[in-house]
């Protein structure tokens, strides 16, 4: 799936509501509604550096319903 417009430079996007992180590059196309809803809710977060390790460092855990890269 394509990265959302606001996150063209970011691979990992966090959901503040449930402390889950999504690897947008690894998401299948059918996950687009989930990411669209997250963007509409404005409860998202990006990480610097843009890595799964940094997301975990901030208390975010991989979303169980979609695969994550490293």
Would you kindly provide a brief summary of this structure?
The chain is of the alpha+beta class and 70 residues long. 23% of the residues lie in helices and 19% in strands. It has helices at 32-41, 52-57; strands at residues 12-15, 20-23, 44-46, 61-62.
Topology:
Elements: E1 12-15, E2 20-23, H1 32-41, E3 44-46, H2 52-57, E4 61-62
Parallel strand pairs: 2-4
Antiparallel strand pairs: 1-2, 1-3
Structure description:
- This protein is of the alpha+beta class.
- The protein has one domain.
- The chain contains 2 helices and 4 strands; from the N terminus they run E-E-H-E-H-E.
- It has helices spanning 32-41, 52-57; strands at residues 12-15, 20-23, 44-46, 61-62.
- It has a 4-stranded mixed sheet.
- Strand 1 and strand 2 (20-23) form a beta hairpin.
- The relative contact order is 0.29.
- The model has no long low-confidence stretch (mean pLDDT 86).
């Amino acid at each position: 799936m394509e990265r959302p417009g606001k996150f063209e430079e970011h691979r990992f996007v966090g959901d503040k509501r449930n402390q889950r992180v999504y690897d947008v590059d690894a998401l299948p196309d059918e996950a687009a509604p989930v990411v669209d809803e997250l963007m509409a809710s404005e409860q998202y977060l990006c990480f610097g550096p843009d890595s799964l390790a940094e997301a975990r460092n901030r208390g975010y855990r991989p979303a169980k319903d979609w695969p994550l890269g490293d």
